[in-house]
Design a protein that fits this description.
Radius of gyration of chain A: 24 Å
Keywords (chains A, B): FAD, Flavoprotein
Family (chains A, B): Belongs to the FAD-binding oxidoreductase/transferase type 4 family.
Strand order of the largest sheet of chain A: 7-8-12-10-11
CATH class of one domain in chain A: Alpha Beta
Number of strands of chain A: 20
Helix content of chain A: 25-40%
CATH architecture of one domain in chain A: 2-Layer Sandwich
Protein name (chains A, B): FAD/FMN-containing dehydrogenase
Oligomer: homodimer
Strand content of chain A: 15-25%
Organism (chains A, B): Oceanicella actignis
Distance between the termini of chain A: 40 Å
GO molecular function (chains A, B): catalytic activity; FAD binding
Chain lengths: 528, 528
């Protein structure tokens, strides 16, 4: 193990990214770390010394390393709330280099923070000041591994590397007359590796599932320096534990996904979409069941919007043409799709006529063209942008069983009202999946800053309620660094113990994305 | 730890089930096992002593224990090739009792073999003479945990215990006007716990996925005595590692699934099915693509049959009315289904007309009624029974990418012909999933016994070929005890190391279903 050397700093603009002191991880008084292994769950991490950095520079070459000011692009996150630190940005060219980096860092006990498109909303992809890992990590960027290795329409599959941008993967599938259905607002910059590491969701989950459901196999680099080679194009493979699903959603804490075999689908030849006012969350759910009965899997998306979001859009993005003015209190955007000859449009019209008759939909807009359909989606997908401009006190990505969603919305409103009746709630999202984005804003005219003090209480209130209703505090965004306390509070104790045991087994040096995805503290003890 | 006591025997009919000697697991010369832990990957197991057996009897009561001749039903397997051994059959009433049993056995280092419906074909559910575990295990039967706890059509979900028989789960869903789509030949006796432990497949995977894809969450008992409580009815939950998918398919080597939250679907109001002659595997695949383009997910099943299987049916089950006589060399059974008004029948007719025009189908039978449709499936599902009556030398459950399936069939025939040109091959199965059951039989008139000596060579030939084509030696049946050597030969070394590390982490005493699902030998070393 190399001796300690002076610390490196990387400046991101004017911010010093490496903290001066890392007391809990490199105490002066402990014995030789090689001889005194850290207690389980809290491996002792070290700063990257020149020996490691030189080894990485030699391994990766000039294109493969970014340092100093050039590192800045890897240290931002989408909402600009957090700024990361890095000893160096490592940009491997392939799985073997990735594995070599992990092995070098594990041997040196230097933390690694994997980074793909950098669009995550829970801080899993960067190490901000004051958060683990304490010594500035090596940030491992997958952006250079950006080849589409194979598109095989015959197999309804393609193999893409972790650095491929989602929109490029979609385009490659389309060029082969297939659909890769993963779709979300950040698809122009999110990369496959991050989408899989966080098991991303999006607008088509109702029909096609989450990122994990779209993945046939993965290639991954592991901290022992080996490469897991699991890029099979198989629908069925029961030979051994499902390591694919273990790595997907583990947020880079067990290994780094370097490529994936992804499922493709027939491109729907017919689509129809409607934006409909509906009296309440209850009627929105009844409408969902009606459409699901009428279309089964062909019901592709079912989104809920609240008037608050529409008001924000009108206020902050006034040029965006809204489908219904004035907006109804609740609206849904429903899309159906299917093969040629499957009569999506007339069947949707018939179903909606029944919905109106049953009082489930008041009025609405049926897209008359592909352009109109795209415009409905533009409105839906602009909601997060308007939210950001208004500035939420607290944002939540929750899920609940469908049978309890309406109750969550009603009780949530009451509970937030008890905190401060002037708070505004924008509750919207993927109702078909039981997944709501539930954002709480200051009263009109007030600034977020004046309400920061309420953030903790609001978060606790929303997450306690969702847990009580059998839901999850993290539906599709992951745990990252911002929700580890929630995982500790709401996670099943046996599950947390299993997670800790798996983490120790596969990453004994504890270098893989420390501080993310796991609750951090020692797990609860097993029962007597 | 209790002292050694005289060994117990359980007789299954005339067979003594507990071996007299267990040299590799209880050597006389080793020091106190409590003080000399076994090397990783090879924990030292012990025989169940009276102290443990009495503790289990006290915990479970008379209904919860089966011993002596009463244990026999748990020690058979469907093909009667293997007979298991047991120190005792433990039949817990709930997850807590299950966890308690596991903890007691882990503390006593006594192996546990979990048992559900007992229909597995690869020996994962029993411990035959000469196979691990060497001391006779406690067989943990989930059959008493057979409640359907909840059916929630609003959530398109139900919660069932591990001992529920698949057909009963299907019926419970149907009573709530929903479909639980898992369907396979043994559904009248297979139980949910085993179906999940082995990630079962079946005839509807093409549309609905494997058992794992139908599972929202699980409850499981763990060897540390705790209960994993993960029965959430959520479509999206990214809070932590996906332990559900790790336990599903791990064949009882990490824990025992005691209940599951399962996905339900709308019941298809319309179905149509056809049995079609097709010139070759290539045309069968082209027909699959044609139907998938025309029906997308509504193509529910796509099965391939070879004339050999039809000949076996005619010979061994002559009363079964076959749809086409004489049978064509290759035939497919295709089924489509969808909601009311989705015009399955006329669309299937149109698609088949196109298929005939393009030379993909020669002639065939379109089911004219629900009874005819059911009859087509009866023929398809009788094939394994006729196979058993004929007696295969070697049976294989393989998968390959669709683009390589035809090549597998052609090369397989050549390779088997080189072993002995008189061997007969019955190649059939779930072509839509790339999953074939590939069974090799002695020449007509010869007995299986005369060809036993070829079994190893045939297996190696088939599995080498499928591996070369990027396929799997275990598509839907699992690894069990009969395919551990295949896993060692074909498994990715990094994957085998990860599996071994996870196994050690979660089952440090090594008591969970030893000898099953893992390659057994120490895993290959990590790279330098």
């Amino acid at each position: 193990m190399a001796p300690h050397r002076p610390r490196r700093r990387i400046a991101n603009g004017d911010a010093v990214l490496t903290p001066e002191t890392t007391p809990q991880s490199t105490p002066q008084s402990t014995p030789d770390p090689d001889r005194a292994p850290a207690p389980p769950g809290e491996p002792r991490l070290r700063e990257a010394d020149e020996a490691l950095l030189n080894a990485l520079r030699a391994l990766l070459g000039p294109e493969g390393v970014r340092e100093g000011p050039d590192a800045a692009p890897w240290l931002r996150e989408p909402r600009d709330r957090l700024t990361g630190r890095a000893a160096l940005i490592a940009r491997p060219a392939d799985a073997e280099q990735t594995a070599r980096i992990l092995r070098l860092c594990a041997e040196a006990r230097v933390p690694v923070v994997p980074h793909a498109g950098g669009t995550g909303l829970v801080g899993g992809q960067l190490a901000p000041q004051g958060m683990a890992p304490e010594p500035a990590p090596v940030v491992l960027s997958v952006d250079r591994m950006n080849r589409i290795r194979q598109v095989s329409p015959e197999d309804d599959a393609m193999i893409v590397e972790a650095g491929v941008i989602l929109a490029d993967a979609q385009a490659a599938a389309e060029a082969a007359d297939r659909l890769f259905p993963l779709s979300l607002a950040s698809e122009g910059s999110a990369r496959i590796g991050g989408l899989l590491a966080t098991n991303a969701g999006g607008v088509n989950v109702l029909r096609y599932g989450n990122a994990r459901d779209l993945t046939l196999g993965i290639e991954a680099a592991l901290p022992d320096g080996s490469v897991l080679r699991g890029l099979k194009l198989l629908r069925k493979d029961n030979a051994g534990y499902d390591l694919r699903h273990l790595l997907i959603g583990s947020e880079g804490t067990l290994g780094v996904i370097t490529a994936a075999a992804l499922r493709l689908f027939p491109r729907p030849a017919e689509r129809a979409a409607a934006w409909l006012g509906t009296p309440s969350p209850e009627t929105a759910l009844a409408l969902l069941h009606l459409l699901r009965g009428a279309f089964a899997e062909q019901l592709t998306a079912f989104e809920l919007m609240h008037r608050t979001g529409m008001d924000f859009l009108a206020e902050r993005l006034p040029d965006l043409r809204q489908p219904m003015t004035p907006p109804p209190e609740w609206a849904v955007l429903a899309e159906v799709s299917g093969p040629a000859g499957s009569a999506q449009r007339p069947r949707l019209e018939a179903a909606l006529a029944e919905a109106v008759e049953r009082g489930l939909a008041a009025d609405g807009v049926l897209a008359e063209s592909e352009a109109q359909r795209a415009q409905l989606w533009r409105v839906r997908e602009a909601i997060p942008e308007a939210n950001r401009k208004v500035g939420a006190i607290s944002s939540h990505d929750v899920s609940a069983p469908l049978s309890r969603i309406a109750r969550f919305i009603a009780l949530g409103r009451e509970a937030i009202g008890r905190i401060d009746p002037a708070l505004r709630i924008n509750c919207f999202g993927h109702l078909g999946d039981g997944n709501l984005h539930y954002n709480v804003f200051p009263p009109k005219g007030a600034s977020r800053g004046d309400y920061e003090r309420l953030r903790g209480r609001i978060q606790r209130t929303v997450h306690d309620l969702i847990a009580e209703l059998g839901g999850s505090f993290s539906a599709e965004h992951g745990v990252g660094r911002l929700k580890t306390a929630d995982l500790r509070r709401y996670g099943d104790p046996a599950a947390l113990r299993m997670m800790a045991a798996i983490k120790r087994a596969l990453d004994p040096a504890g270098v893989m994305n420390p501080g993310a995805a796991l609750p951090g503290d020692p797990p609860p003890a097993a029962p007597d």
